[in-house]
Amino acid sequence: MKSVLFWVVLNLPSALAFDPEDPDSFAPRYLAYLKSDYLPCVGVLIHPLWVITAANCNLPNLQVKLGITNPSSLTEQNVQVVSYEKMIIHPYFLVTSIEHNLMLIKLTSYIKVNDYVNLVSLPKAPVPEHTMCTVSTWGYSFCDISKEPNSLQNGNVSVISNTRCQDAYQRHHKSITKSMLCLGIVPGRRQPCKEVTSAPAVCNEVLQGILTFADGCVLRADVGIYTKILNYVPWIENTIRNN
Q1: Sign of the C-alpha dihedral, residues 214, 89, 140, 115?
Q2: What CA–CA distance (Å, rounded) separates 188 from 220?
Q3: Pairing of strands 206-214, 224-228
């Protein structure tokens, strides 16, 4: 039994911090840092004028920053800062539920696509179970949320079935629906940490999920429940078209 557990520990995916001095380290160009008067969120650039995030990121005085790797730095270059024109929350979202947890943010001006900022594609087909995906967000040094996070990290985790996801969240199994996607390793929680919420899951350069709930740390491969973007592509495209 001990040998099995040792093998599992050795094969757990780890979070990889972005290192600007390391040519093999990468910062996802689609990531947006959503700064507010409350707590920050992660957004994803899907159009030069639109960012998508979780509906619970409807926060006061939101500011969108792209091309940023270290929000605590005052000297970082290649950062584009823009305000927003409107926020559009999915019409079926309720604050008492983790379902339909999506929000579109229309920016006040077009983002300049370059070597540091770019779009991510929306899905056209379901992502198969066991597909390896990248989950990206920012972490805090010493879990100190009184300061800006300073560590952009990418975690490689795989898609798991909703059945296995329900095993990881037995108290919430009825809340896990077909409009959700789960990634991580069962049983889930292993190590406490503090991460910026609403991390995206990108699989083969396609946005497949936005984190809606996690009991633990998605960057350490704890099981996270994500809004399945594929189910919402018509809403996303119609909203952009009509606004």
Answers
A1: positive
A2: 9
A3: antiparallel
User: What single letter denotes the amino acid at residue 44?
Assistant: V
Contacts of 117 (CB under 8 A, 6+ apart): 29, 30, 45, 66, 67, 78, 80, 111
Single-letter code of the amino acid located at 48: P
d(CA 5, CA 25): 29
List C-alpha distances in Å: 51 to 75, 170, 178, 219.
Answer: 24, 33, 24, 22
Contact 73, 138 (CB under 8 A): no
Give kind and range of the element (H or E) at residue 166: helix 162-168
Q: Tokens 């000297």 label which residue?
A: 75
pLDDT tens across 122-163, in order?
999 999 999 999 999 998 876 555 678 888 999 999 999 988
Asked if 49 contacts 106 with a C-beta cutoff of 8 angstroms, the reply is yes
Torsion angle (degrees, nearest 10) of CA 15, 119, 44, 237: -140
Distance CA 141, CA 200 (A): 21
Tokens of 130: 């066991």
Give the closest residue to 63 by CA, choosing from 86, 38, 81: 81
- For 30-72, how does the pLDDT look when each residue is reduced to its tens digit (9 = 90+)? 999 999 988 899 999 999 999 999 999 998 889 999 999 999 8
Q: How many CB atoms lie within 10 A of CB 6?
A: 10
